[in-house]
Amino acid sequence: MSLRKFDHFVAIDWSGAAGPRQPGIAMAICEAEGGAPVLVQRGSAWSREEVLSILRDQLPANTLIGMDLGISLPFADCGAFFPDWPESPASAKQLWALIDLICTDQPNCEATGFIDHPELSRYFRRHGGREGDRFLAAGAPDKRGRLRVTELAQQNLGCKPYSNFNLVGAAQVGKSSLTGMRMLHQLGGAIPVWPVDPLPETTSVIVEIYTGLAAIAAGRTAGRSKIRDYDALNSALATLGSPPVKGRGPIDDHSSDAILTAAWLRNAAQNPQFWSPKGLTKQIAVTEGWTFGAF
Question: Which domain of life is it from (predicted)?
Fold first, then answer.
């Protein structure tokens, strides 16, 4: 297949935490022509609205943007996001719109109103031992909860994915995914989101990333995916063929995730297998989406 050529690669480590500014958000960018990834610095922690503004108005043209969040919820296992709920959306974009509608009065792209909804809360595992009676619905492989087809593919590559319906524990990504889906809806189609949208021939595109895949490609394991010092980061970058970044001593894992994954995206964008994974059907594309790099 003929592969798209991108000029820039951006990786964003996202956060679903409450509050106007998120220390867990980090952004890094690198150029197709080479060079080390550069961390996009802020005077204070990022807000989700600032990231939205950059995506909409400030990124260079022809950029591949990886966001570390789930762009949808499981659908294929039960034939619905919320089985037996008459108002269950039929597509990822309808899901994004529903989240944003229910949470319209909540600031900072937060999604608490969605998971506290009297019907929808039944499908989530929340803090305080509040596990909805539909969390382990038919199709859940184990106590981690329901998984998307792409998460099963991640698992086959050595990762340890959890359900986006799970909102509890250090490994959960449900909160960041729900806030991210709200943000994607608010983008209003300004940037296509692959594979929910077809891959455009030109212009920028957003893909879902799992930073653990970048770490594995850089010679680390899923259990050692988090990098917290510059020596380890530059060793991983070297494995990916990237020049080192400047710095010594400790680095927070959000920044290192963004830096390493930006370098990985530069390589991964040229792998045709990542754009045509065997488990990705048209139906899965528009309902569950996919994680770039899982195949």
Answer: Bacteria
Q: Are the beta carbons of 29 and 262 closer than 8 angstroms?
A: yes
CA 143 vs. chain centroid, Å, equals 22
On the question of pLDDT at 109 being above 70, the answer is yes
CA distance 73 to 135: 12
- Residue 181: which H helix or E strand, with range? helix 174-187
87 to each of 16, 120, 190, 283, how far by Cα in Å?
A: 25, 10, 27, 19
Q: Enter the DSSP assignment of 2.
A: P
Average pLDDT over residues 108-131: 96
Phi, psi of 140 (to 5 degrees): -70, 120
Alpha-carbon distance of 191 to 116, in angstroms, equals 30
Helix or strand or coil: residue 17?
A: coil
- My answer on whether omega of the bond before 74 falls inside 30° of 0, hence cis, is no
Q: Which domain holds residue 161?
A: 92-185+276-287
Task: Say if pTM beats, i.e. exceeds, 0.85.
Answer: yes
Residue 224: what pLDDT?
A: 82
